[in-house]
């Protein structure tokens, strides 16, 4: 049975790593010193559980509980998520899924038995995509969507090369990328949205996951004097950036279901009395329906054209990530629902708003996700919160799902 | 007579200091190492001219050519401007006025005569206001608008204390602030706007200067996940910032004559998939008519109220600078026009769009300004340009104006 106390203690301990005393939460950005400490902690717990530890050449970490015949790969059941975070994150996003995976293997260890199939707990590199894009990078590459070289050569928002940072923190492993192909994949995660909390339901059986479109938009205007340049003669890169942000908001109002976020911005030279010569923004568009997502992308592209004309600026855009919506494996989703039923826990089918590693692994194996409520739907914020009770129930549903899958 | 070759050479040499090889131009931001080198160069030239050098307690530099009785203060005629720059600036903004002032004193030295009244060449501290606000800080304080302590305790956009930086670069002088009160003040400057260039006129006799309103606006929203937070539940500080920028653009369209610029912006945490928890922008509003400037300020304040309601964010604004429009001394403007006439140079009366030290010194002495054309009106940009011929004509009009004032 599930050792709930250890699970909660692990969540608490991992959550301390990378704590930000100024703005709250923890900033365990992929492949930073803080994230290395998080990795070391997870590897230490895997070692305690006597799992076989494998690290691949892009730093994905796998802890394997072999089956009764000693197999570590054949017909494996994988559980996983990530331990990197955004800035000033909560303690649960990603970590919960990895640590609950460890709790499942601990349930076997505590009973002194081995499973009928190998169980692999994965912690994928750089799920958040804050420093290196795209997000879900480690799982995407594991699923064959990126080569190891593409991953290692990725240049970060801070100008670093991913491969250099990976080597620096000592997590450039030996195992070739994509070695451990699972037969099924399960990911337990906090919802990060408001639905379960609002409806008072403890478990989400995630049936699908919305599409994600990430772009970086580079605008070049002309620097000039704020006091002497008539409004009609301006080529204001900053204004163009702002106009994209307000345009996207308006688009979402006309196209319900589309989410649009501009989370990051830079002006150059960024001085009070200089019209910005350049501006860079990121755009995050999402929709569970790929057609609507394409419509949003198209509307944005048209607005950029309008701005090129009206403001006399040049604009280039770069695709940082583009993932189609994913529909999870119907049978696996059913098993999750049955597991919740068997424990008499209320559940509902739902869509994931966030991107997850499961979205990538779904390319190579039947996959499903289990959600637990997020208080007020807050995530990517130090105030991200899920009740201990709900965390424990989620892990129990994960364990019951694993047990059900192993017994068939 | 004016030594045009030396003037052009000085402009060239000073323009090399703080050169930015990457983005062009020079960044000689107030009280940085680069600006210290610029100060050293100006002081060296003042020494060559055997001027009496005085540095006040906020770093304003004065080079004095005494009158025939050896007076350095009584009934002094001051010329001046500044040698600090914005990022990636042209070589002329400010420097031209200081170096032309030196060229006027050189004309006396070359002739071996002393003027009938002391002539003071001033280089005021931190005119640009990029690092420390308000702009025109040194001249404002010289005119009694700020105490030395207020200046020294100013905290910069980079978190530094002005007094510490001033001491660090060795320009914390002995002379009490405000010691050298001039009887008249003249400032020669590039127009930084397009009017003279467009109209093919070589000299602007600046009759007035528009009002300047600088604010910093701090917005606090709520960080949350870009993929899971419904648009209707967002408190997006970044969207609010963008909405201010587009609102100001619309306001200027309804209120011709008002200029509005948002030159600098920061989001927190500035990550692609996190709704910004905070955003900070600067707002630069200008108008030659104080009532219209107040209308713009009022409209902005009302828009902030709207945003507080509609976006559920908190917004605070801080006044960084607020200067009423200034009307220059009619008699002095007449003398400038007569000087241009005496040299048969085309001239026109005009308004200054940029703020200038003359605007501050006008509080304590009759003041006027002389403008020369700026190619295409470009300034605060490495491509700021004025023909040598125009630079020389401007300095000649300055010299003729000085000679006229000394002879009365
Ligand atoms: N679950 C999660 O926060 N993933 C990060 C990628 C994204 O959805 O922005
Ligand atoms: N002349 C000039 O560029 N002054 C800086 C202050 C302003 O922004 O007007």
From TrEMBL, chains A, B:
Zn(2+) 2 binds at residues 93, 128, 380. SUPFAM superfamilies: Bacterial exopeptidase dimerisation domain (SSF55031), Zn-dependent exopeptidases (SSF53187). Binds 2 Zn(2+) ions per subunit. Gene3D superfamilies: 3.30.70.360, Zn peptidases. Its cofactor is Zn(2+). Residues 210-306 form the Peptidase M20 dimerisation domain. It comes from the Bacteria. The keyword Metal-binding applies. Zn(2+) 1 binds at residues 82, 93, 189. InterPro entries: Amidase_Cbmase, Bact_exopeptidase_dim_dom, Peptidase_M20, Peptidase_M20_dimer. Keywords: Hydrolase, Metal-binding, Zinc. GO terms for molecular function: hydrolase activity, acting on carbon-nitrogen (but not peptide) bonds, in linear amidines; metal ion binding. Belongs to the peptidase M20 family. PANTHER family: ALLANTOATE AMIDOHYDROLASE, ALLANTOATE DEIMINASE-RELATED. This is Zn-dependent hydrolase. It comes from Maribrevibacterium harenarium.
């Amino acid at each position: 049975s599930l050792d709930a106390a250890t699970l909660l203690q692990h969540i608490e301990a991992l959550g301390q790593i990378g704590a930000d005393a100024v703005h709250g939460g923890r900033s365990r950005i992929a492949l930073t010193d803080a994230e290395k400490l998080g990795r070391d902690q997870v590897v230490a717990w895997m070692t305690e559980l006597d799992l076989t530890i494998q690290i691949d050449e892009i730093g994905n970490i796998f802890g394997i509980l072999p089956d009764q015949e000693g197999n570590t790969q054949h017909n494996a059941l994988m559980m996983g998520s990530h331990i990197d975070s955004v800035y000033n994150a909560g303690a649960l996003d990603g970590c919960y899924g990895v640590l609950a995976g460890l709790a499942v293997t601990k349930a076997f260890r505590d009973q002194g038995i081995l499973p009928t199939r190998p169980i692999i707990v994965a912690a994928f590199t750089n799920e958040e995509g804050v420093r290196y894009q795209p997000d879900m990078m480690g799982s995407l590459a594991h699923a064959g969507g990126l080569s190891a070289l593409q991953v290692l050569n990725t240049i970060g928002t801070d100008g670093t090369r991913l491969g250099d940072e990976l080597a620096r923190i000592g997590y450039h492993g030996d195992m070739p990328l994509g070695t451990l192909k699972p037969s099924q994949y399960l990911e337990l995660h906090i919802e990060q949205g408001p639905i379960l909390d609002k409806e008072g339901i403890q478990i989400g059986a995630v049936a699908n996951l919305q599409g994600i479109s990430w772009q970086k938009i580079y605008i070049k205007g002309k620097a000039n004097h704020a006091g002497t340049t008539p409004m009609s003669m301006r080529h204001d890169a900053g204004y163009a950036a702002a106009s994209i942000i307000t345009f996207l908001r308006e688009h979402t109002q006309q196209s319900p279901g589309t989410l649009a976020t501009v989370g990051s911005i830079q002006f150059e030279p960024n001085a009070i009395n200089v019209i910005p010569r350049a501006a860079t923004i990121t755009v995050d568009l999402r929709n569970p329906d790929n057609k609507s997502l394409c419509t949003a992308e198209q509307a944005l592209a048209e607005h950029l054209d309008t701005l090129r004309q009206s403001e006399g600026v040049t604009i280039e855009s770069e695709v940082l990530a583009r993932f189609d919506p994913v529909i999870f494996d119907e049978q696996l989703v059913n098993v999750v629902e049955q597991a919740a039923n068997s424990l008499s826990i209320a559940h509902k089918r739902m869509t994931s708003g966030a991107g997850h590693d499961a979205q990538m692994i779904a390319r190579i194996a039947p996959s499903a996700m289990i959600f637990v409520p997020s208080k007020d739907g807050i995530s990517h914020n130090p105030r991200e919160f899920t009740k201990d009770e709900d965390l424990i129930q989620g892990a129990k549903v994960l364990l019951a799902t694993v047990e059900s899958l192993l017994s068939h």
